[in-house]
Design goal:
147 residues, Rossmann fold, mainly alpha, single chain, three-stranded parallel sheet
Length: 147
């Protein structure tokens, strides 16, 4: 295979064109070497059904479900290997994950729960204790729709 025809660097694009690029891509590579605090690119990609491959820094392990919605890797060579496995990722699972964990409804619910946890904790001890690290990964309770 001719490598210059496998990877296309397109530079900055408008929001109007971004969705079309995600919809037609096989994967989104996110080779960021710093601790990205949120990773909106990953969520946008998976919302379109396009799996993401990223280094496990910052928020990446909280956003990508390794082996289900993409791959969390630790080196450029691991990223190359993950590209070879990208067809094992179900695009519907990527969309479902974003809808269930990062929709407006889901995020608002989780923030309200977090604020309640902080308020109760403050009342009990007057000192902040950090919630469990998997707190924002918990699914919504039955009956709360994910938009």
């Amino acid at each position: 295979m001719d490598s210059d025809k496998q990877i296309i660097y397109i530079g900055e694009i408008s929001s109007a064109h971004k969705k079309q690029w995600y919809l037609h891509a096989r994967a989104t590579l996110f080779p960021i070497q710093w601790g990205e605090p949120f990773g909106l690119v990953l969520i946008e990609s998976m919302a379109c059904g396009t799996p993401a491959i990223a280094f496990g820094k910052g928020s990446v392990p909280e956003i990508i479900v390794n082996g289900k919605t993409g791959f969390v890797v630790d080196s450029p060579s691991a990223m190359i290997e993950a590209v070879k496995c990208i067809d094992s990722i179900d695009p519907d699972e990527c969309r479902r994950h974003v809808r269930n964990h990062f929709s407006i409804t889901s995020m608002a619910y989780k923030y309200s729960q977090l604020y309640q946890h902080i308020a109760i904790d403050h009342e009990i001890s007057s000192s902040y204790r950090r919630p469990p690290t998997d707190y924002l990964q918990k699914p919504l309770p039955h009956g709360i729709p994910a938009i």
